[in-house]
Design brief:
- β12 and β13 form a beta hairpin.
- By secondary structure, this protein is mainly beta.
- Residues about 1-5 have low confidence and may be disordered.
- It has helices at about 225-240, 255-260; strands at about 5-10, 20-25, 30-35, 40-45, 50, 55-60, 65-70, 80-85, 95-100, 105-110, 115-120, 120, 125, 135-140, 145-150, 155-165, 170, 180-185, 190-195, 200-210, 215-220, 220-225.
């Protein structure tokens, strides 16, 4: 986690009674993009709801949040969760959410290429999501035979993660990359070039961000700049102070149901 500081996990592959009961965060953002099923979330500020397939939740933990994420129904729930670091001046801002329903995510299509613009810009359309760390997050689908060239700012870190099909990235003679594989891209500023030479649609996410150039110290759900800040965060959480005051008496409905 040294530049965009991305941690992408196909983590929301859970079924009831599993899930992610009450847990804290500080110092970064979590971006949850659902692929299948739905997840119910709730936090100690009283914010709660359900995000389903195609929906987006961009949560800025800032100075502190305690929340839960649990399956909203039977069967398997699947999604992507990206962690994005915050620079030091934003680590202790107030928590906030940006949520966009699937039907409201900006989409465009051209010459066999379709894109859902979660953050940033592609094919002439821009996402309304505000990113504290300059970030692009694009969900591309290429029909068989389609070709894509997309710019990436010089010095940004970027990667692609394949969801469906197989694609050739960067060089037309490269080996095809299949589902559940991540490919890191160079930071030379030439962007990314993609070919779908398969017989099935290729779907992948392109994620990129501007390096922060700051030290990173991570301890579980806390991402700060120094060990001293991590120690202070643990003290704040355990003592329910400095942003975690409401954690003292709060339990999510999901956690209460598990306890009884």
């Amino acid at each position: 986690m040294k530049a965009l500081e991305p941690l992408l996990e196909e983590v929301l592959e859970v079924s009831a009674p599993g899930g992610f009961p009450d847990h804290p965060h500080r110092g970064f953002e979590t971006v949850t993009y659902m692929l299948q099923g739905a997840v119910t979330h709730e936090d100690f500020e009283g914010h709660k709801g359900t995000i389903g397939a195609g929906d987006l939740q961009w949560m800025t933990a800032g100075r502190g949040i305690v929340h839960s994420e649990m399956p909203a129904g039977p069967g398997t729930q699947k999604g992507l969760q990206l962690w994005i670091n915050l620079c030091s001046k934003y680590k202790m801002i107030e928590p906030r959410y940006q949520e966009i329903a699937s039907k409201d995510i900006a989409e465009a299509a051209k010459e066999g290429v379709k894109v859902r613009v979660i953050a940033g810009e592609a094919l002439g359309i821009r996402s309304p999501v505000h990113t504290a760390t300059p970030t692009m997050y694009l969900d591309f689908t290429l029909k068989p035979g389609a070709h894509l060239e997309h710019p990436i700012p010089i010095a940004w870190n970027a990667f692609v993660y394949v969801l469906e099909g197989e694609g050739i990235f960067g060089n037309s003679k490269s080996v095809a990359v299949g589902p559940h594989h991540l490919a890191l891209l160079s930071s030379g500023g030439d962007g990314v070039e993609v070919w779908n030479r398969g017989l099935k649609p290729l779907r992948f996410v392109l994620v990129g961000g501007q390096p922060l150039g700051e030290p990173v110290m991570q301890y579980g759900p806390f991402v700060m700049n120094t060990q001293e800040e991590i120690d202070q965060t643990i003290e704040d959480f355990e003592g329910c102070t400095n942003g975690f005051e409401k954690a003292r008496h709060w339990r999510s409905e999901a956690t209460l149901a598990l306890e009884y």
